[in-house]
Every structure is written in C-alpha cells, then in structure tokens.
Amino acid sequence: MSPQSAPWTKSSWQQHPVLQQPNWPDKAALNQVLGDLSNRPPLVFAGEIRALKDLLAKASQGEAFLIQGGDCSEDFSQVTAPKIRETLKVLLQMAVVLTYAGGKPVVKLGRIAGQFAKPRSADTEMVNGVELPSYRGDMVNSAEPIAAARIPDPNRIREGYYMAASTLNLLRAFTRGGFASLQRVHAWNQEFVAQSPMGRSYDRVAKQLSQAMQFMETIGIPTDIPQIRQAQFFTSHEALLLGYEEAMTREDSTGGGWYDCSAHMLWIGERTRQIDGAHVEFLRGVNNPIGVKIGPDYDLENVKQLIETLNPENEAGRLTLITRLGMKNIEKVLPPLLREAKREGYNIVWSCDPMHANTYTAPSGLKSRSFNDILSEITCFFETHWSEGTIPGGIHLEMTGENVTECTGGARNIIDEDLANNYLTTCDPRLNAEQSLEVAFQIAEMIRS
Ligand code: PEP
Ligand code: CO
Hints:
With 449 residues, the chain is α/β, with parallel strands linked by helices. It has one domain (12-119, 154-448): Aldolase class I (TIM Barrel). The protein has helices at 27-37, 46-60, 81-101, 155-176, 191-194, 197-218, 226-229, 242-247, 278-284, 300-310, 330-344, 371-388, 433-448, and strands at residues 65-70, 106-111, 124-127, 130-133, 233-238, 249-251, 258-260, 265-268, 290-294, 319-323, 349-352, 359-361, 367-369, 392-398.
C-alpha cells in the first residue's frame, strides 16, 4: 500500500518524513502551545475558503486573473497599521489596473496574515562574517544576528497566531469598511509613487474609472453597492510548520470536510514537495485551494503524481501550480509541463512566480533580483502558455507597499549601489510599490492585446 492510500487524518502527516521543521529544544512547551491553539478560534471560515476556490476555478478557465503577493517573510515588528495598509493599497492598485486596463476580474490573495515560517537551504548562514543557525521566520526564531536569538521558541508560534489575527482583522476592516471602495481609487496612490511615471499612469486609470462611476450615477445606476464599496480579499502562506497547520485544522460544521483555517489558501514550497513527504500528506486532506511551487529541475512524472495525489477529482480551483523556473530556463522547461498537463486534461491554475529563480548576490553581498529578469520570466510565461494553448492564470510576487530598494531596475532604475539605501527585508528581496505597479501595467498590456 502506498503511504497516501492510508486514511488521512489531520495528524497522519506525522507518519511521513518531514523536512524543514525547526529543532525545537523543548517539545513539551511546543505541544502545549499547539494544544492551546487547537482550541482558539479559526482565523478564516470554510465558506470563505470555498468562495476563493470558486474564483480560482474561474482563473483556471481564463475568466479571472490571480494576483498573489506580499512579503517573502512577514516580520512581527512590521505588523502595524501603516505597513498593512500600504501593502493592501498596492494590491488594490494592481487589481484595478488589471481589471480596468486588462479587462479581467482579479482575485486578490495576500502573502499575508501568516507568512511567518521560512524553509532554508542550509541550517546555518553567515551574517557579517559570523556563522549562525539560519533564520527560519518570525514564528520560529528571530532574524537578529546573535546565536541566542536563533534558538527556536514555540511561544513564537502563539505570537504568530495573534499577529495573523490582528493583521486579518485590519484587512477585513479595510476591505469591508469603505477603505477599499472603488470610489476611493485615487487615494490608493502612495505619495512617493504619485509623481513617478507609474503613478501618473495609475492616475489616468483612476480618473477614467471615476468618470465611469460618475456616469453610472448620472443615469441612475446606483454605485453604493457591495461590488463597488467592498473588496474581496484572501490570505495565504506557505504551509511549512505542520504542527501549527494541524492545530488550525477544523471540521466544517456546516458542509463537513476538513479545512485548514490558518488561511484561505496554503502552498507547498519547492523544498518540501516530496510525494511521500509530510507536507503533501497533510495538504492532500484539507479542502482549501492549495498551491505547489515548481522549480526548474522538476521531474515530469513526479509532478503528475503530485497533481493526482493533491487533486484526485480534478476539481477546478483546487490546485494552483506556481512555476518559478527562472528567466534563463523557462523557455525550455515550461513547454513540456504544459503539454503533458494539457494532454491529461488537468484543471490547474497556472501561476508565475518570477522571483525565486531569479535571485543573485550583488557585489555588496545583498541578495537582489533584477526587474528586467522578473519581467522576462513573466513575458515568457504568457507567451509560452499562449503558444501551447494553456491559460496563464496568475502571478505570485514578493512585494511590499513600501519604498524599499531591494530589487534592481524598474522605472527609477535602482542600481546595485542603491540597494543599501532602504533594504528592509529579513529574507528575500521584494518589489517596491512602484515596481509592483509597473508589473501590473506590463501584464495589463499583454492580456489586453
Ligand atoms: C517563497 O515563496 O518564499 C519560497 C521559499 O519559495 P520556493 O519554495 O519557491 O523556493
Ligand atoms: Co521568498
């Protein structure tokens, strides 16, 4: 019997090899935190999770487009109203550009309210010439470069739960309470973006949208309706710390079935997608929409097994494959994957992560990504899908609403020497607000033509 034909429970992952888990020094303390969290309120509700799945089903058919974005690694110290608001603003701006200029409804999915755990390629890392245990995300240890701060502390899981809850609370307030109303579309342009070429392009879109709404009002079509006054916004993170994900998993009291209520969507990272591994075992049994990252060295048979294990009913909206192939490889390695998936008739949301295989180390030692490389991978992603007759359904970005200097290039042409000016990420380099908006305009251009 293959491991996955044994019955699933929310704990069955524990019978499988599990990678990328912290070495918790005090197991009793860990179990106490997890036991406690398993009695706390869920962060999201099964009905919302199903609503997202329906929207993703549309994205898999080309009737909607997914924007998934946010920090590589959320930082507890940055769980503040301004930081959350600025990230939300850029995602809303990108969505407006793609909806209005690109002509597609947009599914807005944050890498937010729970993106606190990171897989690492090595157990130790060099910081300022000193070897330290790797930082594994704020839910595990602290990024502070001293050995004591790097010891995994289960209290951080508890703190992560409350940080996610307060983030989600503000997001719900913003998106339901008028902040995200399309009548405020002008107010989402950040001050530091407004005077830039991207800010001006955005202003033009916002103006047209305002005029369209004014026209509707003039002829008596009400604009005070939820479709205009509210935004639908969803959350996601990498399902990495399986003890936490298990603690947040609940049986739906209305429709039945198990849901991981830590976020609406969860994904499996490139490092933990082993077919017999614990992460695949855990996620196969929850009803959330799930994602799987696919890197350039994928094995086609292995990807097919993943698809059939994670989505045996071929349900549309259930599975998003997030390809992160690198601008140098994508042209060669994406077509065989698309051809086989098409031949098999798999229902998949194809999403492009143009970040994770385009990272380089600048001479200063800072990790960066070039805006042109990112754009090249995105362009090739669209062109390859179109030539193979498959559907480019979404984009997965590491981005922030702040004016950071982490990725080079873009309209302001950030160069390697500028990176240190405002390099704030605790993990991978993110697009800043202006660069993110530029990506949205480029995609709008492509999907319109
Ligand atoms: C990430 O999304 O931050 C990440 C670690 O990606 P991947 O698993 O694709 O390397
Ligand atoms: Co990352």
